Input
Amino acid sequence: MRELPLPLKAVVDQLAGLPGLGPKSALRLALTLLKWPKERTADLGRSILELRDKLCLCGSCAGIADEDPCFICVDPGRRSEQLCLVAEWDSMWIMEQSGMYRGLYLVLGGLLSPLDGIKPEILELDRLRVRLKSNGVREVILALGTTAESEATGSYIKNLVERDYPEIQMMRLAQGIPLGMDLKYIDRETLRQSFAYRQKF
Output
């Protein structure tokens, strides 16, 4: 089969490098972009170029935001005594969409996985210590999922908190979440129930 035209191949190769997209899906997307009006593709291109420039990490929760601190961290209606730990940004957004939680967050930036080179020093544990010292936190809620990496990370954080901040209560989401499931794939009702019936950890 003849090679794709070079400009099309360049876009297909870039798209195929995204999670969940293979070469066929990437080709379909690229061909869809070709059918769009020129202005629409230009708008998409500008949005992608500006993505990094217009977003920042919140200095408090390490979430993606368009200002620092983010709108969640400055919301006076939030329960500052509760701190929910999530692995990644998308898990934080899933929690927000559930509408169940009104405390504050901290995005760890991953889960412990020595085989993948993710060690404790890579995670936002220094930021966690700062939050536990300064914000009147009384309850830490682990919303990390139920994978082996989640359990290892949860145990590590539990030991850290119990050693250095014994007055803080450690909780985890109820185990209605299937074993081995990443939090971002949980439906809203299961997440809501898991949060409502969270357990001591």
In short: The chain has a mean pLDDT of 88. Residues 38-54 form the longest helix (17 residues). The helical segments are 6-16, 23-35, 38-54, 89-98, 125-134, 148-164, 188-196.
